[in-house]
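Running low. Invent one:
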Amino acid sequence: MDSYAQPLHIGFLLLPRYTLISLSCAVSVLRMANRLTGQPLYRWSLHTQTGNAVESSDGLCLHIDGSLSEAAKAGQLFVCGGIKVESTCDGELLNLLRGFAKRSTPIGALCTGSYALAAAGLLDGYRCAIHWENLASLRETFPKVQVQQGLFVIDRNRYTCSGGVSALDLMLNLVESRYGRKLARDISEQFICERIRTQQDSQRIPLQHYLGTSQPRIVEAVALMESNVEEPLGMDDLASYVGVSRRQLERLFHKHLGCAPSRYYLDLRLRRARLLLLRTDMPVIDIATSCGFSSAPHFSKCYNELFGRSPRQERRESGLGGEPLAPLATRG
């Protein structure tokens, strides 16, 4: 690897009751990048709004390197949120965050840190990720923010993830974009990660949390879709089962999920197929059949339209060399 004159300095802003696992995953990727290359590619510092230590949601306190103002020279800033994030976003904090944006500092967020960025207006017109428990409230509170269901989102100079171990995937993708795929894969292997997940991977989100409790017809329709993947239901039958007309069902899906029920159903089947591709040794034609596709070419065409690669490319690009995975039960 080529020598780099200056390491990238990343500042982490810890909000009270932040999620420790997300911070640990993010920092661990940076540490491993330095270790594997033998070069100081990254350095990092921990900050709070005032410079005083704050407890994580686990009740643990870490050494703090300084206040948020002292992170002004960082090359990137990540806001680490956790529970009750709304109560931590006072006017002073939001103004400090806006100051980083004015200096064109790339800004990211781990877990509910996305809420702080949205409250500061720094996600207006951007796509972002946040933990599934906060999806509906973020969407309703900040309508200018394009809230996504993904594990993480990289949109221009905004980097957000949904929390938990998704911070690992976000940072691995950022390492790859800066230093190449090989280093990202080597880091992943050190952490016993089966694969590096991408922005196309979605959180497993209970629909009630995504929509709230006001749309039981949609929740029921999606439950029927999930139960009928191999032999998909027709839209007229689906509407009949949930007690509405087909046109009304289409209106509900367009209004609350942003797509037709047939599109949602197709994406659901394709995402199920993607899991089978990456986690089993099933032949592609068997996966196609089990997910309701009548032919491999039709399956491949639909898959490519959603994910930007064919099913076989998916397996190959996931680092499997074009070979299917061993059955889960036999992996050591």
About this structure: The chain has two domains: 8-190, 211-320. The CA atoms of residues 132 and 205 lie 6 Å apart. The mean pLDDT is 90. The longest strand covers residues 8-14.
